[in-house]
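Protein modeling request. Please complete all fields; requests missing the sequence field cannot be processed.
Requester role: graduate student
Desired output: 3D structure, token encoding
Chains: 1
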Amino acid sequence: MNAPKYEIIIYWSSDDECFIAEAPELSGCIADGPSYAEALSNAEIVISEWIETAQNLNRVIPEPKGRLKYA
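Delivered output (71 residues):
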């Protein structure tokens, strides 16, 4: 699997007691895992599945913007 070109934000969730990995450019594209590395790995899988599903549904797939900027 090719590494995703989308930014992935990973943070610890005390409520869920796991790491959460979000791809903010892909609406609803979120994964989790008990470790940082596993959350990242799961996010890469979910990103690929998100893109595959969007292609199957003929939906627009946003171009990766690279590093996002926050205020």
